[in-house]
Structures are given as structure tokens and as C-alpha cells.
């Protein structure tokens, strides 16, 4: 199988926060890989912008070091890297003042796509947007990319949307969620809507329940003060996991069109039931394995912020009424894994005597690691001795199926940045979508704050608090094992 690389138009991309961690880990390495693949025209320009006093040569050295560190060694081509580095330049800029803006304007060219990546704190979004227009750098065709968090509640999200809307139309704003750029997440839509096999079964009549798991082995050490202001609900559920839920649950859009897709996702969010207190489990990892616990890392011995959360979510619409969605995410868990598991109902009648051998059909979509999908089906166990049943996977690992191409699947940031240049907003969140997600999330957070709920402690390297197991057990179900 040969993948097609379709070049984008020449562009000027300004990375505000160009010397920051995200730029070094993801943005610059991702752009290099797209340049290596032949997707970025050689006459494109990438401009770093930050407060640091640096010249072009300094920024190029920074970019080269980042690429060498974060791109696989077998993908480093010295000739290509040198050509890519030549596309880079730098402007020292004051986001809240006047310094550097005239120099940036001089670097912008005519007849190219202009994109501005706000890889900075949300508090600077308004300042950047205002100055881009005030200095005549952005025009009606320019695009801006904004990173999460998109507020910390509904009020702040509305304020942030209003600030951006004063200077840019909704069609120019790209709210990036890297989970939507993952190959497997997009394949979820292909599996659903390009195959007649699954769509007739994709409803409560045939689906028993859905599990969405995002587990991490790392804690919050080093960024505990920041994380303690958000917690797992704000950091993961309100955005990443909400997007995954929407892609699973949404109705087929009339066309694979940005607003058509986002209209259907918005309908799902608005159909979410309020979550009952008994359907929420929150936790904090304890000290262990020679490392401190969450409260040590947060620097607050009385912290009530969750590093783990599990919820039972219900959707009140014709397709999903009666099928629960179980969401869980946490730090310092047993393994690093992200997956969606759609568990189908058992047959209404079994003709086989080996009832104990029966297991549910499960479609598992693996986001990380080892992106791919497998479908668990029942077959006859090989050998004589009667009809004994066993469960086996029909497996599709991208690395296996696509060969070398599967091993070199573009990073989510690579794909999403190229979509920005193309002007394709399908995989980006719309303003009303963000606000609807916060409108559902806020009462949940306010509820546990009013009740004074305390997160349950759990051991590092475990699957989370014991109470989370009971969340499933009382429904006669169980969580899938967390493993790589």
C-alpha cells in the first residue's frame, strides 16, 4: 500500500512561543517530518517569535537540536535537514507591547497562506490577536491556531471566544486537540461510515456499553502547581475524552465537511445527561516506588484535585438511550494506553452448550501505543472433543498492515498543522462546541466542590481506586485490563 503525499500551498507560519517546550517537542519536529515527506514546499517560511533575545542563527540551532532529539535517527537526512533549517527565521517580540511587530510584518510575504500558531498561555491570545490586526499582519484569509486549555469553565471559555472573535472570524480560528489528529481516531470515522458492516449495529439495540480509557504511567511531578488548578476532569475529560465520545456517538453527517461533522458532535454533547454523584469516582495517586504522591508533587498536603477520574455517562437520544459510556483517565497507572472499546450485546439465544466459554464481541480501537484496531470474535477451539468456544482477535495493527508506512504514521501535530494550511477545520473544535462541553462539565465540578468530596487514594502502578471497580461491578460489568 502506497500512501499519497499531497503538498500544501506555500505558507508563512509564525510560531508564537517558538522557543517553548511544545515548539521543540512537537511543532518543529513535525514540520521537519512533513518537509522530509515532500509535503511542505521549499518556498515556505517558518518564523519563530518569542520574548527571548535571539537571532536567526540561534533559533536555527535551537530547532536543529530539537529535531535531532525528538525525530527518530533513521528519519534524519542531513541534506534535507539543512534545507529545512534554511526556511527558519526568528523575531524577538513583545506580545503585550510594541516591540518586534514591525520586524515581523516585514517578514510576511504576499500571495502565501498566513498562519499563526499561539503556542503561549491563553492569557496572551487576546494580545496577540489584537496586535496582529493592529499592525496589519493578519488579513481576512489568515488562520490562527490556539492550544488548550480553552478556558477553565463556561464563563472563561465564552470570554476567550469573544476575545478571539473581535479580531478573527470563526472560520479563521483553529482550536487544536491533538487527539483528533491521531490516525486511529480518524479511522474510527472511516470504519463507521465507509463500511456497511458496523453502522447498522452502532446503537443501543446491539451495543451493551462503551469504555474509553486514557491511562498514563507518569505523575505530575514538575508541573504539579499547574495541574493542581485543573485536574483530570478539566485536563482530559472536558476536551480529549469528550471528543472521542462524540466521534463514537455522533450521527452520520450529510457530508465529510467541517461544519457538518461538528454539527453532529455538538448534538451529542447537548444530549449528555447530568452525571449523578454515585456515577463519579475521583482519585489521587499515593507515594510509592521511591516517588512522592500527588499531594507531594502538587505542593499542597490538603489538595482535593483529582489525578484520576472515572464516570458513567448516558446519552439521551434514540441511538444511545440505555447504553452507558464509561470514561476513565489517570496518572501513575499500570501502563500507558489509550483505547476505545465497544462491547456488543450477547446473542439472544445460544445454541451451544459451552456457555461458560462465551465472551462478548468487542471492537477495540487503540490510540496508543501500537495504533490499530481489533475485533474480538468467538470461534471453535481447535481439536476434537466437542464444540468448545474461544475468543480470538481479528487484528489490524497499522505498523503490521501498512509495513514501513505504518511505522512512519504522521504525528497528530503534523497532520493538524497541514490541515490548518489547507484551511480544513474538520478536526478542530468550533466555539459553540467548546462552550457546550463546559456547560456539561461545570455542574459536575461544582457538585463535588459543594459536597466537599475528597479523592480516593490509589497505589501507583495500579488501575486506580477500588471504588472505580465498583462503578462497573454494580452494573454487572468490568473494566478492561490496563496494559500496553
TrEMBL record:
Where does the Glucose-6-phosphate dehydrogenase NAD-binding domain start and stop, copy by copy? 14-187
Question: Catalyses which reaction?
Answer: D-glucose 6-phosphate + NADP(+) = 6-phospho-D-glucono-1,5-lactone + NADPH + H(+)
Q: Per its UniProt record, what PROSITE patterns does this chain match? A: G6P_DEHYDROGENASE
Specify one Pfam family. Answer: G6PD_N
Query: What highest taxon heads this organism's lineage?
Result: Bacteria
Keyword Oxidoreductase included in the entry's annotation: yes
Q: Where is the Glucose-6-phosphate dehydrogenase C-terminal domain?
A: 189-480
Q: Which pathway is this protein engaged in?
A: Carbohydrate degradation; pentose phosphate pathway; D-ribulose 5-phosphate from D-glucose 6-phosphate (oxidative stage): step 1/3
Residues that hold NADP(+) according to the record: 17-24, 51, 148
InterPro entries in alphabetical order: G6P_DH (IPR001282), G6P_DH_AS (IPR019796), G6P_DH_C (IPR022675), G6P_DH_NAD-bd (IPR022674), NAD(P)-bd_dom_sf (IPR036291)
Q: Which UniProt keywords apply?
A: Carbohydrate metabolism, Glucose metabolism, NADP, Oxidoreductase
One GO cellular component term, please give it.
cytosol
Q: What is its EC number?
A: 1.1.1.49
Tell me a Gene Ontology molecular-function term this record carries. Answer: NADP binding
Q: Which GO terms describe its biological process?
A: glucose metabolic process; pentose-phosphate shunt, oxidative branch
Please list the residues that make up the active site: 240 (proton acceptor)
Keyword Plastid in annotation = no
The similarity comment for this entry is: Belongs to the glucose-6-phosphate dehydrogenase family.
Task: Outline what the protein does.
Answer: Catalyzes the oxidation of glucose 6-phosphate to 6-phosphogluconolactone.
PANTHER family according to UniProt? GLUCOSE-6-PHOSPHATE 1-DEHYDROGENASE, GLUCOSE-6-PHOSPHATE 1-DEHYDROGENASE G6PD
Name used for this protein in its record: Glucose-6-phosphate 1-dehydrogenase
Amino acid at each position: 500500500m502506497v500512501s499519497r503525499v499531497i503538498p500544501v500551498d506555500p505558507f508563512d507560519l509564525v510560531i508564537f512561543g517558538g522557543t517553548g517546550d511544545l515548539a521543540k517537542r512537537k511543532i518543529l519536529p513535525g514540520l521537519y517530518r512533513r518537509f522530509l515527506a515532500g509535503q511542505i514546499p521549499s518556498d515556505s517560511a517558518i518564523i519563530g517569535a518569542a520574548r527571548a533575545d535571539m537571532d536567526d542563527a540561534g533559533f536555527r540551532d535551537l530547532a536543529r537540536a530539537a529535531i535531532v532529539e525528538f525525530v527518530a535517527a533513521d528519519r534524519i537526512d542531513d541534506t534535507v535537514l539543512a534545507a529545512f533549517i534554511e526556511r527558519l527565521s526568528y523575531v524577538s517580540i513583545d506580545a503585550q507591547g510594541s516591540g518586534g511587530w514591525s520586524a515581523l510584518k516585514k517578514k510576511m510575504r504576499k500571495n502565501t497562506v498566513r498562519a499563526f500558531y499561539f503556542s503561549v498561555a491563553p492569557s496572551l491570545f487576546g494580545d496577540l490577536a489584537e496586535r496582529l490586526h493592529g499592525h496589519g499582519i493578519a488579513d481576512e484569509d489568515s488562520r490562527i491556531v490556539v492550544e488548550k486549555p480553552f478556558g477553565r469553565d463556561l464563563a472563561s471559555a465564552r470570554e476567550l471566544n469573544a476575545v478571539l472573535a473581535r479580531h478573527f472570524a470563526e472560520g479563521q480560528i483553529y482550536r487544536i486537540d491533538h487527539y483528533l489528529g491521531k490516525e486511529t481516531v480518524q479511522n474510527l470515522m472511516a470504519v463507521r461510515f465507509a463500511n456497511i458492516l458496523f453502522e447498522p449495529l452502532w446503537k443501543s439495540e446491539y451495543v451493551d456499553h462503551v469504555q474509553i480509557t486514557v491511562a498514563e504511567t507518569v505523575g505530575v511531578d514538575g508541573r504539579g502547581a499547574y495541574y493542581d488548578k485543573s485536574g483530570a476532569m478539566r485536563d482530559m475529560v472536558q476536551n480529549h475524552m469528550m471528543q472521542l465520545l462524540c466521534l463514537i456517538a455522533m450521527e452520520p453527517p450529510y457530508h465529510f465537511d467541517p461544519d457538518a461533522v461538528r454539527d453532529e458532535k455538538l448534538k451529542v454533547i447537548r444530549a449528555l445527561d447530568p452525571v449523578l454523584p454515585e456515577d463519579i469516582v475521583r482519585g489521587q495517586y499515593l507515594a510509592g516506588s521511591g516517588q512522592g504522591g500527588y499531594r507531594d508533587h502538587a505542593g499542597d498536603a490538603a489538595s482535593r484535585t483529582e489525578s484520576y477520574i472515572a464516570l458513567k455517562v448516558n446519552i439521551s437520544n434514540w441511538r444511545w438511550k440505555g447504553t452507558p459510556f464509561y470514561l476513565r483517565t489517570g496518572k501513575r497507572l499500570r501502563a500507558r494506553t489509550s483505547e476505545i472499546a465497544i462491547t456488543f450485546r450477547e446473542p439472544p439465544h445460544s445454541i451451544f452448550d459451552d456457555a461458560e466459554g462465551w465472551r462478548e464481541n468487542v471492537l477495540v480501537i487503540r490510540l496508543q501505543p501500537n495504533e490499530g484496531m481489533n475485533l474480538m470474535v468467538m470461534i471453535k477451539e481447535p481439536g476434537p472433543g466437542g464444540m468448545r468456544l474461544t475468543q480470538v482477535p481479528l487484528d489490524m495493527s497499522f505498523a503490521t498492515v501498512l509495513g514501513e508506512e505504518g511505522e512512519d504514521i504522521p504525528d497528530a501535530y503534523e497532520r493538524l498543522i497541514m490541515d490548518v494550511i489547507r484551511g480544513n477545520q474538520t478536526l478542530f473544535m468550533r466555539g459553540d462546541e467548546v462552550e457546550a462541553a463546559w456547560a456539561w462539565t461545570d455542574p459536575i465540578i461544582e457538585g463535588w466542590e459543594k459536597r466537599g468530596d475528597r479523592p480516593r487514594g490509589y497505589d501507583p502502578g495500579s488501575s486506580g481506586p477500588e471504588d472505580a471497580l465498583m462503578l462497573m461491578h454494580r452494573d454487572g460489568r468490568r473494566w478492561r485490563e490496563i496494559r500496553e
